[in-house]
């Protein structure tokens, strides 16, 4: 039996255009997206939370990300995921298509996002950032839902992922 090739986060998001000006690109876009996905899986509920997660897990993240200039600030994450490319689809639309190509949206998703991830309490409001952060939440809920070894709710799986890098890696392998 032939094994399927392993697909990475980078494989899912390879087509997303970087909206930043070349001279401002101190961090790789895929590093920013990967940190954001991991952070939201672990319970981050905003851009500062993503930066805080990145700083706390810097050593672990360096084992599989390049991070040429360290952990990006929350302002960098917002600028990288919330901006508009000069032409075509917004990053939110590209990001969303990448996610929807891998997972279907369930009818009860809004309820789960609101109860487990407190989506309706989110204060992110600028540009495309609300849509992009919603997509990060969808990725987190879908991956945590697909992980079936741990018999817990989404919130407890998030907490476990924040504490246990091996569990987080197992969740990310479901991508």
Number of strands: 0
What's the tally of helices? 10
Shape: globular
- Helix content estimate: 40-55%
Strand content: under 5%
Rg calculated over all Cα atoms: 15 Å
Query: Largest sheet at a glance?
Result: none
Q: What oligomeric state do the depicted chains represent? A: single chain
Uncertain parts: 83-87, 102-107
Q: What is the CA–CA distance across the termini?
A: 22 Å
> Which series of helices and strands comes N to C?
HHHHHHHHHH
- Structural class designation: mainly alpha
Mean pLDDT: 78
Describe the fold and architecture.
- The chain is an all-alpha fold and 175 residues long.
- It is built from ten helices and no strands.
- It has helices at residues 9-12, 29-41, 47-56, 58-61, 74-82, 91-100, 109-117, 129-146, 154-163, 165-172.
- α2 packs across α5, α3 packs across α5 and α6 (91-100) runs parallel beside α8.
- The protein is globular, with a radius of gyration of 15 Å.
- Mean pLDDT is 78; it is low at 83-87 and 102-107.
